[in-house]
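Hi V.,

You were right to ask for the full record rather than a summary. Here it is.
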Amino acid sequence: MMKKLLNYSPGFLLLLLSSDLVQSQSINVDWKTAKGKDGFFRVAKTQQGQWWFLMPDSTPFYYKGVCAVNRAGTAGGRRAIPGIYAETIDRKYNYQQNPDLFVHASLSKLRALGFNALGAWATEEFFNKGMPFTEIIEFFKEPPFLPSVSKREGLPDIFDPSWMIAADKKARALCSPLRNAKELVGYFTDNEIGFGKTDDTGLDLGFEAGQFDFTLLRTVLGMDSSKAAFKSAWSFLLNSYGQSFEKLSGAWGVSIATVLDIRKLNDNKAVINSKSYDADAEAFSKFYAEHYFSVTSQLISRYDPNHLILGCRFGAPPPLYVLDAMKPWTDVISVNNYRPTLYDRYDTLYKYAQLPLLVGEISWNTDLFKHIPFASEVQQPLSVKERMFRAGSATLQRAAMHDGIVGITWYRWVQGVSVADRFFDGVVNYNDEPDVHKDAHKILLPTLDSLRKRANDGKWKSVALVNGEMNLFFDSLRPGWDQPLRIEISQSKPLPHAFGWKMKGSFEKFSFRGNQLEMKLAIDFEEAPGRSGNTAAGKGVYTIQLLRNGEKWAGTYNGIYNGSKLAGKIYAFYFPDLK
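Predicted structure:
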């Protein structure tokens, strides 16, 4: 097998696979798994169990898109307000007279860097111009809305007939013109939505639309009694208790004699401390999600029965009850991610849902990519840019190796001009010139298709611990802490130090035999900011035992953190060097 290494920058080595490897790797589709209509984009598994998009002619397609390719240069597409970039485009391409020059130049830039698709918020002038594209409907933008303590638009009242009319009108306007489009991959229903909280404390993390004081159920039960959601929620709840307020009161441990009493409880911010209440709150959020996914799927299919439904672009792994509500109504689950642990983070979701995943947004321009050192840097420090590219490239390579991930989408098309170590996310900057990521994209992206084909047989998952990286995930490494620790292994031994976000570890023991691994780690923690205040600095020592199952290891740990005993579960993913 022909291979070569390109030295992109000091400390950044990326394995490139020659074009003859692409030709030598064949993908045998298991047609029983195919989703979608013949003659349009579909998804299917290989006979080895790896998901792929299939182009209209059935050619396997690994999606490498970019978000927000449009004149405004921002998310929102047709809703976006033109700004600095639009002024550049109008002046450079005379866009107002004819957008074709801008479209052609933009698509040429994308292809030159290795991109092959248009993500959410591309505008209509880019459709059917020779590059696969997606459309986003954004049903959650349609009123009427439920109450929201954030004083901004909350979740829509999807039970209200006026919302149904608006959603139907939007689906008809956006989907009907595209029903025969061969280059359309499919439709996103929304972006980073949530389905309300299922407890009365904290925030609805990762789901920007759903930050309330109370659960979705309690919020809706206490709203205006004339609203459709109020009536649906009370019908849902009382059906569970035989239409009996007495039974409901007993289960929740509070006095509820009429449908108006919840409003009084909400006004007084009364605590409802009951397992039955918690279960009912989760059940109603699932009920809301089921209604949303079923309605939006049917509306899209009413006006375009030919294309895939790509989900709602989760901002974080959703609860399992949301996946249960979603599974019957979507072909692909779309997820957004700005962490180096993309593979690890969404593997559990994939294993549970057994549906292909499309990464709707990713950028390596975040602190988790830029400011977690590699163990090898103890001897040879990297610049922030080099570290960002090394960690980011590894993340996208691993995504391409995941059985369920059918593509990635860079966020975003345009942003400011990067200078020194102040980077922006744009493929191009506001001057319409390629920005800081261009060389890394140009080296990396063309290799991902062949890397995915190479990973199809799954043999890499059982490669011995010789050279590679392992991410360790503790259920509570220190109180309230969910960040992993990265171990680098060389010649079957760990490098002396391991790093994670605001933490540094050193090994007191590391031994493995067959599929069993045991280690002892001492970890120093820095003070770290959090949503509920800072997490104090500390020290921990942990003994870890792991058992291998493919690329994933699982086991237990016990130790001491700041003098207190800790014990729990741990899992890890091992990624061998790509050689």
